[in-house]
Amino acid sequence: MVFDSTRFDLQPYAGLDLDRSVRLTYSSWEDAEWQSLLVQRFEHDPVVEELTLPAAADLHLGSVSKW
Could you report how far apart the first and last alpha carbons of the chain are, in Å? Predict the structure, then answer.
């Protein structure tokens, strides 16, 4: 689900099956070759029974939009 990098602690996501309902559609590190800022876009299923996300040590800003 999240961008796979040794620069981020992804351990909190271990064991979570987010691939069923969340898809990464854009990563600025891969698509724009940025290294100082990571921007990601995800597509989420419109309805899920439950979606558990872990606490994160990094700053996350989120924006929700319906296209």
Answer: 21
User: Among 37, 46, 39, 45, which Cα is nearest to 63's?
Assistant: 39
Q: How far apart are CA 67 and CA 55, in angstroms?
A: 27
CA atoms of 14 and 28, how far apart (whole Å): 23
pTM as predicted = 0.58
CA distance 59 to 49: 26
Residue 24, both tokens: 């990464």
Query: DSSP label at 12?
Result: G
Helices H / strands E in the chain, number of each: 1, 2
Q: What is the pLDDT of residues 19-36, one digit of tens each?
A: 777 788 888 888 888 878
